[in-house]
Amino acid sequence: MKAFQKEYDVIVVGSGPGGATVAKELSEQNKKVLILEWGSNAPIKGTFLQAAKMIGIPGKNVLLTNKKKMHVLVRGTTTGGSSVFYCGTAFDPPFEMLDSYGINIRNEIKELKNEIPTQPLSDELMGPMASRMMTSAQDLGYDWQKLNKFIFQDKCKTGCWRCAYGCPYDAKWNARNFVEEAVSNGATLVNGVKVKSVLTDGNKATGVKLKKKGLTYRVEAPTIVLGAGGIGSAEILRKSGLDNVGVDFFVDPLVIALGKVPDIKKGNELQMQAGWHVKDEYVMTDLAMPKTPMLSMMIKIKDDLGGRITDRGGCKKDLTKNDYKKLSDGFGHAKKILKNAGVKRVTKSMVFAAHPGGSVKIGDAVNSDLKTEYDNLYVCDCSVIPEAWGLPPTLTILGLGKRLSKHLLNTQA
Ligand SMILES: Cc1cc2nc3c(=O)[nH]c(=O)nc-3n(C[C@H](O)[C@H](O)[C@H](O)COP(=O)(O)OP(=O)(O)OC[C@H]3O[C@@H](n4cnc5c(N)ncnc54)[C@H](O)[C@@H]3O)c2cc1C
Q: How far apart are CA 90 and CA 272, in angstroms?
C-alpha cells in the first residue's frame, strides 16, 4: 500500500457541512489539514446534467431504502456534500435534546449566525408560488411563516430555478464556502478519493486507507475526523471493525403534494421559502420544482428510528405505521391549503428522503466530544445526532463542527 508523503495534523474525511467546518476552523489556527473527498471539485454550473452526476447516480447518490415501495434517499457527493444541492433552510438546532447529552452549542450557533446568512427572504425575493401557498395557509388559520435561509440575498435572483441544481451565482451559502476558506488557509483538498477504513493500532487510530483511481493508499495523521455523512461515516466505521454503528437511524422521509393552477406558469423560485412546523410530527413548506408549472408542497416527517446501513454502503429502512400516518395527516393539510390556493386536483409523489442521520449516535458510538472508542478518531456529521427531530440539520451540524474544533484545539498538541 503506497503512502501519502506529506505530514498533516488532521485528516478530515468528507467535505459536507461537518467536515468543512472542522477543516476551516482548524486551518484558521494553522493546523495542517488534509481533506479527503469522494466527489469532484468541478465548479458548480447549476445545470441538470451536472447535478445528475453529483446527486443522481444510482447506488452512489440515489439509494433505495425500500426496494418494493421505491422509497428513495438522495445524497450529494462533491466538495460541500449534500449542501451544494440543499434548499438552504436554516432551522435552529434541537438545543434541549443536545443538552441532555451534555452538549451546548448555543454560542457556536451565535458565532455562525454572525458569519453566514440565516435570515428569511425579503418580500421582493419571495416567489409567486411560495407567496400564494403562504397566503392560502394563513387564510385557513395555519401559522405558516417565512423560514430562515442560508442565502446571500444581494446575490440571489428572482425567477431563478438553478439553486436545486447547485447555485452558480454564489447566492446559496453551502459547505463549499467553508472548504474554500480552509484551502485558502493552507488546507489540502484531495478529490476523487474514497476512504475505505480507518487504520488502528491498539486504542489509537493511525491513519486511513483509501482508494484513488483504483489504487490503494494509506495516509497518516495524529487526529482523524470522519465527516462522510449519515451513511458514509457508518460505512467506514463498520469496515474498521466497529459494530455499534449504522443501525436505528432517521432519514426524515417526505412526500410532495402538487397540482396545477392555471395562472402560474413555472416553478422558477427558491425552495422552502416559508412553512409550518408541528413539533414531533412534520414540517410542511413550499417546494417549487424547477421549470414545473405546479404548486408543490413538501411534507417532511420526524420518522421512527430503524433501518440498517449495509456493509457495502447501502441504506435499508422501512417506514412504520406511525410514519405513514404522519405523512398522510400532513398530506391532508397540504390538500386543503393547495385547494384553497386554486389547485383543482392534488396528487402525491413517492417517498423521498435526504437527511440520513443518527447512525453513529452521540452517547452510543461517540461520546459528547464526538470521540469514538479510539483516542484520536472523531466523527462530525449528521450521523452523530442522537435522536430524530424531523427538521433540516445543517445548522446543527455546523454548530457541532465548531464545538469539535474548539475541543481539538484545546486538547491536541
Ligand atoms: C435535496 C436536499 C435538500 C436539503 N435541504 C436542506 C435544507 O434546506 N436545510 C438543511 O439544513 N438541510 C438540508 N438538506 C440536508 C443537508 O444537506 C445534509 O443534512 C447535510 O449536508 C449533511 O451534512 P454532513 O456533514 O452530514 O455530510 P454530507 O453533506 O452528506 O457530506 C458528506 C461528504 O462526504 C463525502 N464522502 C462520503 N463517503 C466518503 C468516503 N468514504 N470517502 C471520502 N469522502 C466521502 C461525500 O462525497 C460528501 O461530500 C438537504 C439535503 C438534500 C439532498
A: 10
Q: How many CB atoms lie within 10 A of CB 349?
A: 15
Per-residue cell: 255 = 412526500
What is the domain partition of the chain in residue ranges? 1-41+78-116+173-250+355-413
Residue 389 to residue 395: CA distance in whole angstroms? 13
3-state SS assignment for residue 409 = helix
Closest Cα to atom 39, ligand 1: which residue?
228
pLDDT band, residue 4 (cuts 50/70/90)? confident
Instruction: State the Cα–Cα distance between residues 240 and 93, nearest whole angstrom.
Output: 30
Ligand 1 surroundings by CB, under 6 angstroms: 13-19, 36-39, 74-77, 81-83, 85-89, 194-195, 227-230, 232, 236, 272, 354-355, 381-382, 392-394, 397
The H or E element spanning position 205 is: strand 204-212
Distance 193 CA to ligand 1 centre (A): 16
Evaluate if residue 413 carries a pLDDT over 70. no
CA of 149 to the centre of ligand 1 (A): 17
| Record: fold of 1-41+78-116+173-250+355-413 | FAD/NAD(P)-binding domain (3.50.50)
Within its chain, how far is the Cα of 243 from the centroid?
A: 24
**Residue 229 CA, ligand 1 centroid: distance in Å:** 6
Query: Any bridge partners for residue 357, and if so which?
Result: 250
d(CA 245, CA 261): 46
- What are the CA-CA distances from residue 231 to residues 54, 187, 248, 382 (Å)? 16, 25, 12, 9
pLDDT of residue 412: 75
Q: What is the pLDDT averaged over residues 318-346?
A: 97
**Distance between CA 56 and CA 59 in Å, rounded?**
9
HSE of 386, CA atoms in CB hemisphere, 13 A: 20
What is the CB neighbour count within 10 angstroms for residue 44?
24
H or E stretch including 410?
A: helix 394-411
Shortest-distance atom of ligand 1 to CA 20: 25
Q: Are 182 and 27 in contact (CB under 8 A)?
A: yes
The span from the CA of 77 to the CA of 332, in Å, is 34
